[in-house]
Write a structure and sequence with these properties.
Blueprint (H helix, E strand, L loop, with lengths): L10 H13 L7 E3 L4 E3 L2 H14 L2 E8 L5 E10 L5 E9 L5 H20 L1
Antiparallel strand pairs: 1-2, 3-4, 4-5
Length: 121
């Protein structure tokens, strides 16, 4: 899969993202993974932790699934600078735990949470 990662020039987007990162606070870990005996931040908490900072600095964040290898989920996380149209993206590929709607949904939630985290750090 040939995947373009960003517009040729991202200086103004990078400046806006620096401002976003300066105002972010870490998302609280509000859930427990009993399998690994660890805590993690749920997707709604991650989204709420970054939404205001992104909007304040004119950044649109979107995520969407893409086709990748069989039994894998591909998720693109894309940030767009509203003022200039400059953008940057990342592709996260993870294995599906099960090849059914529940496995796909579980992988999508996991990928969205980690995709946002990767995009903002």
């Amino acid at each position: 899969m040939n995947f373009q990662m960003c517009t040729p020039e991202i200086t103004e987007l990078a400046e806006a993202m620096i401002h976003v990162q300066q105002t972010l606070s870490p998302a609280l870990k509000d859930a427990e993974n009993t399998f690994t005996n660890s805590r993690y931040a749920t997707l709604p908490l991650v989204m709420n932790a970054c939404r205001d900072a992104l909007l304040k600095h004119g950044i649109w964040l979107t995520q969407y699934p893409v086709s990748v290898e069989a039994n894998q989920l591909g998720l693109v996380t894309k940030t767009v600078h509203a003022k200039t149209g400059l953008w940057q993206a990342s592709l996260l590929t993870i294995p599906l735990p099960k090849s059914d709607p529940q496995g796909y949904g579980s992988a999508m939630t996991y990928a969205r949470r980690y995709g946002e985290h990767r995009c903002l750090n």
